[in-house]
Fold this sequence. Notes:
This protein is an alpha+beta fold. The chain is built from three helices and three strands; from the N terminus they run βββααα.
Amino acid sequence: MEHVYACKGTCSRFIYFDLDENHVIRSVRFDGGCNGNLQGISRLVVGQKAEDVIERIEGVKCGMKQTSCPDQLSRALREALAEADS
């Protein structure tokens, strides 16, 4: 199922991602942000369990900002997991 997350406080505007029934990330695409870095993050997390990715990237900050694109991805994944559990 494709999810869309509106980013807050980062250069990226949206994150589009798919999770399978076992919470494995099947695809990730960022709209906006640092293209090369975000392609790298996307490739690293595809095939990983959402819970493991959240644990690794949650709380990452970008410069003086209180969040980052990886942190926004962790929030998006957490939100998707909460929806799946309800």
